[in-house]
Amino acid sequence: MPVYDQHVHTYFSFDSSAQFEDYLAQTEQPFVTTDHLELSNPDDGGGDDKPDFAAYQAKLKVLHQQYPNQLLRGVECGYFAPRAADLAAYLAAGDYDLVLLSFHHDGQYDYQNPYFKTVDQKAHVQAYYQRMLSGLKQANFGDVLAHFDYGLRVLDVTPAQLTAWAKPQLLEILRLLVSKHMALEVNTKSLYRWQNAPLYELVLPWYQQVGGELLTLGSDAHTPDKFQTEFPAAKALIKRAGFSQLAVYHQHQPTLVAF
């Protein structure tokens, strides 16, 4: 089995208009999309963005007749504690292969909003990882923790600062991933668009030290030109951190693939 992109968005996401066909034209590998499930979404006026699962299933059925790829079902669940029961109910009603768990907003702002450039960075970083830790403890769903650095993307947090401000929280998060048999995502948008490769180079060895073995690789593509962006460079970074396998998911079960 090959390694393939585990984080891809289409027009079933509120922030993408990408067509399945434009991704599928680029690969004969298995293909999975992970469109946004984002409730109380500040980037959409506080509304609920939920992929239409019936329409999604119908689209995959049509594509199955046209393309040789194995077509898998995925979703990116943006965790928000006040809506946890609604998120769980939505996920339970769908038949997914892969559920990414993300921490995108605090109920008022998406963490990529420039507002977070105006707040105390140390306090924000610690609050972000406390929210992530609490959510991981509460959530009974999720196969993969996506882009652990999402709340830092608009900032300039150095590895030294992340170590000083949040290492104990991050180690607890990483141990929790291991105990819950969840994977940690290596997100190439974070690595190269947001220039957070040094943070991944810092945290991946911590994950390995606490017994972490499950890593996924995702582009976080919202347009077809970003599909599998910089995968060779990301694989090299992962190997330098001491990992030689990546996980791909089918019916929530990981398969480790050497690369």
Automatic annotation (TrEMBL):
<dbReference type="InterPro" id="IPR016195">
    <property type="entry name" value="Pol/histidinol_Pase-like"/>
</dbReference>
<dbReference type="InterPro" id="IPR004013">
    <property type="entry name" value="PHP_dom"/>
</dbReference>
<comment type="similarity">
    <text>Belongs to the PHP hydrolase family. HisK subfamily.</text>
</comment>
<keyword id="KW-0028">Amino-acid biosynthesis</keyword>
<dbReference type="InterPro" id="IPR010140">
    <property type="entry name" value="Histidinol_P_phosphatase_HisJ"/>
</dbReference>
<dbReference type="Pfam" id="PF02811">
    <property type="entry name" value="PHP"/>
</dbReference>
<protein>
    <recommendedName>
        <fullName>Histidinol-phosphatase</fullName>
        <ecNumber>3.1.3.15</ecNumber>
    </recommendedName>
</protein>
<comment type="pathway">
    <text>Amino-acid biosynthesis; L-histidine biosynthesis; L-histidine from 5-phospho-alpha-D-ribose 1-diphosphate: step 8/9.</text>
</comment>
<keyword id="KW-0368">Histidine biosynthesis</keyword>
<keyword id="KW-0378">Hydrolase</keyword>
<feature type="domain" description="PHP">
    <location>
        <begin position="5"/>
        <end position="188"/>
    </location>
</feature>
